[in-house]
Amino acid sequence: MDGNRPYSLLHAGESLDSPAIPWLERFSTFLSRTEAMANWQYTSIGGGSNGPWIATLSVNGHPLNDITGQGATRRQARARLVRRLQENQHPLLHLQLLPEYQANQAVNGDPTVDGLSADGSTSGESSTPNNDLDSEARLYSTNAEREKYESQATLFGIIVALEYLERAYVRDAINAAEYTPACTRLLSQYKTMLKLVGDSVPSVEEFMRRYNMDHPAALHRVQVGVPATIEHSSEQQGSAEGAKWVAETTQSFITFMDALNLRLRAKDQLHPRLQELMTGYARFKDSAKWEGRGKIVSWLITLNAMKASDEISEDQARQLLFDIDHAYHEFFSSLGGAKDNS
Known about the structure:
The chain is an alpha+beta fold. The chain is 53% helix and 7% strand. The chain is built from 12 helices and 6 strands. The strands form 2 sheets. Strands 1, 2, 3 and 4 form a 4-stranded antiparallel β-sheet that branches. Helix 4 packs antiparallel against helix 5 (176-197) and helix 11 (291-304) runs antiparallel to helix 12. The longest helix is centred in the middle third of the chain and has 28 residues, at 143-170. Residues 106-136 are annotated as: Disordered. Its main location: membrane. Keywords: Endosome, Protein transport, Transport. It is a peripheral membrane protein.
């Protein structure tokens, strides 16, 4: 760039009085094209925390003591300082441009030639993003993007809440009567939010890795899909209530095996039935010792990781039927053993 010709923050046809000149964006482009580093300082007029403000500037470690900007906000103060740089043809604007911007520097410093900027972008566009560190960083520019990020934030909060709930339960900070409905509600909310976030969250494991979430208890709970009171239940029951539980659990076993025999294979067809089966199965105090318990939990995790429309393969269906049938006979045998010992 010619040392006698300063860089111009104005484009062709503009003047200092032209409306809506993006001074800060233009200055950011200038800094980028000279590889200069800017550091802003602010002083509140009157000492208050809400301004008005006086902005001062240092470039490459050198303070510009001869120029300031004043405004109701910090951004406004910076913009007025930059305008004064252009108005005064400040020596700062004589900084050497990078070689790729020097060749096509146009008359009067307007960095456009025949509608193209020196870096190849069209006139009025800047290839350099605004590096204004004091302005609000927006995650979204459309309503759809806003909904996506808000949904992800809600999912994040549900996982954190589940982690604290699990820890509170294992430390006896809350009892089973308080824990179970709270956990069931959070799991229901989790499943709803997982549908809403859609393709932006391929899996909960990927989501937790993306945002550095170290919540193993919550991860296990959403993988299993049922509260710990159901996964590891050891409730004592009276004879009348116990008979009711036996009938309900037997019905759940038969219903689930019938579903497999009727060739139901989708997650949304099998998971609710298996979850209902696990709820009844886990009520029995000896169920923790049964081999079938671990297999049912394993299948719950497998189904829980699938999308609602995903289907298990025929090999998986055959293995699942075998495991559930084995668990049913083990459950039925335990009832017979209890009668023999009575």
